[in-house]
Amino acid sequence: xxxxxxxxxxxxxxxxxxxxxxxxxxxxxxxxxxxxxxxxxxxxxxxxxxxxxxxxxxxxxxxxxxxxxxxxxxxxxxxxxxxxxxxxxxxxxxxxxxxxxxxxxxxxxxxxxxxxxxxxxxxxxxxxxxxxxxxxxx
Length: 138
Description:
By secondary structure, the protein is an alpha/beta fold. Helix content is 25%, strand content 16%. It has helices at residues 30-43, 64-74, 92-101, and strands at residues 2-6, 46-49, 80-83, 108-113, 125-127. α2 (64-74) links the parallel β2 and β3. The longest helix has 14 residues, at 30-43.
């Protein structure tokens, strides 16, 4: 199995994002979603959400933004396969490693994120920057 660990802020939205969620947070831009879709179609990777957007995802009263995101990505035929645990929010790489330890079927993975706290998985990081988000060169 191939997995793509996905952050949202700084990957699917950028400093230029003008679209907002229902609660006023920066939403996502189609151009970045289309780039993600090309990656997923080319690799067959499954999406594991590692972004803070996953917090309280099962409680719509607490995270309507997540539901809005999930519904919007479905329009591009992008589904979340799973979510990393919320065990160490200040060290995303450890949360990713924890998820990987529970899923030995994963043969290859990549991390799309604008953060750099990915140890012990740093060599799998494709780092974006908030200013630009996901670009063709990534």
